[in-house]
């Protein structure tokens, strides 16, 4: 099961990386064409906005797995190992709950947009559900990763120390 979770996170992170490369190239092309040839690309800003949402949700679980999320550890260095374990349990439980809420509301919003046939009336006219479907997908991966962290803190296989890789 953990291999499946890690593979899902790796695939999502690879997708986020490809999107990041894509928006970097398209923005550079947009700047060159707009200011060099007075011929802007109409869809670049819109696709970049959507891509930033996708990058965030596709990469969140992978970043958590590698200990890359922001964490304030100024007080952690003064806590006992037992108190650090409790912090790990609380933070991973709250993260799992928040992710579950994202999953639930995101799934509802995606399904609702699909059933209504909602779309973004912009230059590209993309159906709304195709833009926001990444919220429940990313929320699911993130919820499973937080649940895994909770289990590791619970079974004492992981210490919630003040080091960046926690």
List the helices and strands and how they pair.
Layout: H1 2-37, H2 44-65, H3 81-116, H4 128-132, H5 134-154
Helix pairs in contact: 1-2, 1-5, 2-5, 3-5
Condensed summary:
With 166 residues, this protein is an all-alpha fold. The chain has 5 helices and no strands. The chain has helices spanning 2-37, 44-65, 81-116, 128-132, 134-154.
Describe the structure.
By secondary structure, the protein is mainly α. It has one domain. Helices cover 72% and strands 0% of the residues. It has helices spanning 2-37, 44-65, 81-116, 128-132, 134-154. α2 runs parallel beside α5 (134-154) and α3 (81-116) packs antiparallel against α5 (134-154). The relative contact order is 0.15.
- Approximately what portion of the residues adopt beta-strand conformation? under 5%
What string gives the helices and strands in order? Answer: HHHHH
Straight-line N-to-C gap: 22 Å
Helix content: over 70%
**Poorly predicted tracts of residues:** none
Question: Residue-averaged pLDDT, rounded?
Answer: 90
Silhouette: elongated
Question: Helix count, per DSSP?
Answer: 5
Q: What is Rg?
A: 20 Å
Q: Tell me about the biggest sheet? A: none
Strand segment tally: 0
Could you say which structural class the secondary elements and strand pairing correspond to?
mainly alpha
Number of domains: 1
